[in-house]
Every structure is written in C-alpha cells, then in structure tokens.
Amino acid sequence: MRRREFAMPEGIYLDGNSLGVMPHAAHARVQERLEQWKTQAALGWEGWFGLAESLSPSVARLVGAQPHEVIATGSITANLHALLSTLYRPEGERRVIVATALDFPTDLYALAAWAERGGGTLRLVPSRDGHTLHPEDLQAALKDDVALALFPTVLYRSGQRLDVAGLTRSAHAAGALIGWDAAHSIGAMPHDFHAAGADFAVWCHYKYVNAGPGAPGGLYLHERWHHLTPSLPGWWGNDKGNQFEMTPGYRKASGAGAYQMGTPSILALAALEGALSIFDTLELSEVRARSLVLTDHLIHLADQYLPEMNVVTPRLHTERGGHVSLSHPNARALSVALRNLGVVPDYREPDILRLAPVALYTTEAELEEVVRLLRNLLDSGEHLTIDLAGSKVT
Ligand SMILES: Cc1ncc(COP(=O)(O)O)c(C=O)c1O
What we know:
The model has no long low-confidence stretch (mean pLDDT 96). α1 (24-40) runs antiparallel to α10, α5 (76-87) runs parallel beside α6 (105-117) and α11 runs parallel beside α13 (364-380). The longest helix is centred in the C-terminal third of the chain and has 22 residues, at 284-305. This protein is α/β, with parallel strands linked by helices. It is 36% helix and 13% strand. It is globular, with a radius of gyration of 22 Å. It has 2 domains: 24-279, 3-Layer(aba) Sandwich (Aspartate Aminotransferase, domain 2), CATH 3.40.640; 283-385, Alpha-Beta Complex (Aspartate Aminotransferase, domain 1). A hairpin with a 3-residue loop joins β14 and β15 (352-355). Strands 4-10-9-8-7-5-6 form a 7-stranded mixed β-sheet, with helices on both faces. A 4-stranded antiparallel β-sheet has the order 11-12-15-14, with helices on one face.
C-alpha cells in the first residue's frame, strides 16, 4: 500500500504488531529535531514546547476522538497508572475492577495494584479455550459491584477483537467506567472511542503506527472526565499558558494533556510526528480493508497448506484484529527456524506463532513465501534440530 515509504529490513518482516518498521518520514523528522538541538540548544524549546499537543489532531483521528481528548505521552503502563489513579473511585460495595485472563501482563499488574490500594478485587474474565473470550463471559463479569473495567480492543496473543461499542454500553449499564487497551488495534483499523462513549483508553505507537522502539504512548480521556484533576500531576500537565510561572499550585491543562507528567522526549516525539504524517494521508477504513485482504489470504493459505497448525484467531472480520496466530507444539522452534531463513515472525508462550501482515507494507507474495517455508520445515523436521537452549525469541 505504502511500502516505498518504509525502510524495509532484509528478508520478510511479519512482526509489525510488535515493532513496526521505520518510516522514512520518521527518520527525517528525528534528523530535523536533532539538527535543531545541535544548532539551537535550549532555544529549540520554542518549537518543541507544544509538540505533543500539536500531534493531537492526528492521534485523535486514529482513535476516533476529539483532539483535546488525546495526548501522546508516557507508555501504556504509565498512562494506565495515571488514569486509574484518577478514575478508579471505589465506593461502598462497588470496588471491583474487571479485566480478562488473557490480558497483557502489564495491564494486570497495574490493575491489581490499584484494586488492592482501593480495597477492591481484580475480577478476571476467564477464557474457555485459552485463546479467546466468550461474549457471555465478558457480559457476566460486568455486575453492579464493578467500579471500572479495562478490556483489550484486540487480544495480544490470539488477535481476537472485542466489541468496543457493545461492551462500553454494558459497562455503563452496570454503572461502571470502562477503558480500552488499544495496543493491537491502533493503526490497523478505525476506532470510535468518543462515539462509543468509552471513558478512557491507552495504547502504544510502536506497533502498527511505526513510531519506533519505546515511542511515546497515547491516552484518550472522554471529555466528560476533563473536570477531574489528575491524581498524579506533573508540571508538563500544567496549563501551557502559565506553566513557566512556576507557581507552587498545579493548574491542570484543560484536556487530556493534563495527564502528561514530566518533560517529553522530543526525539521520540519527532519519530511519532513522522510516522503520523503517513496516517494523515490515509483513510483508516482502507487500511483495515487491506489488512483484512492480507489476513484472509494468510488464513486461507494456512488452512490449505499447514493443516497441523491451528488458526486460533477468530475467522469473522468483526472478531479479529490485524494479526494471525497459529498454534503448534513446536511453535518456538518454528519461529527460530524461520528467523534463520530470513523471516521475522513473533512467538508467544507457550505455542503461538504470531504473524502480522501489515496493511502499509506487507505483500501477498511474502505471505505465500512464509507459508511455503513453514511447509518445508514441517516436512523436513529441520526445526526440530535447532538447539533452543539460549535462543531468545521475542
Ligand atoms: C496489549 C499490550 N499492552 C501493553 C503493552 C506494553 O505496555 P508498555 O507500552 O507500557 O510497555 C503491550 C506490549 O506489547 C501490549 O501488547
């Protein structure tokens, strides 16, 4: 779709749901900002001061929000703590936080810590098959003792996509707040957090948005909560108009920007700036359409040529995100063997090979070649000769 705008590494790259490849625009923006640092030093702050806020219109487009409802800052973990510290308000019997047994661990660490601090408990929606969540189980967890729920938009292992609008309605009907971890959907499909009425969301920009390793994360806070004062304030979340008056009292910025804490990394924001410039020129519905063409193709190839690998990603378009997960008892060895052959897949314990065809740069021919290589490996048993001791698979 836009392959020429990326520095494609050698071989076949199917790990864009872990770390997206470098857009040339990101490289160029970082170089520009480096040059400004070199030539202007502290005077550069004149142009850098409102950099995160200046990206909000582009970020808001990705998540379906108003620009003042989002900010590029922190990381998923840090943003989750910042939002939970403010939004989790246990009262009487309503103290439970709901998440799922299949969530990315950092979310669970943060949620468990805040539940404990608030005298509540963390209720995990169980999985019936170890890969996916059943809609009835998600609904059943949203009882009237729930103060707050956090769900993933797309599950990081299986790629199952949840119903943001429906579950947001259910949480609100139960009297709970609801937030979303959009790490595995942002940049791969459109979102509509504001219209869905979601209370908050967190995500990273290093996967499908391609803003680089450790890129600033993102947070969304519905404007209905903008009257709240962040419980973990910092001077970067102060109203920009009087931040440098250096008064002892914190005067929060008017929107989601209030949840910034300390001085942001301008070089990291520069890479995000470049990465977002590509999305500014794209319709997210077209990104999603291309992603579905690629994942349909990959699932079809896997069904046809890799019958011993089980596609654990749901089949329906409405129920899956941007990657395809194949389970196999030797998934780890297969992942290492593929790397030795110049393919970068991604492995998740205990038996999942995750393959992410990215709408912006993956081709059908690459998917066909990877399936051919996997077939050869399974037939030859070559992967079984790999010494896995010490091999690090990320
Ligand atoms: C769903 C999900 N949440 C959170 C994270 C990581 O959070 P952080 O950006 O704070 O490292 C990841 C990382 O891959 C993830 O997939």
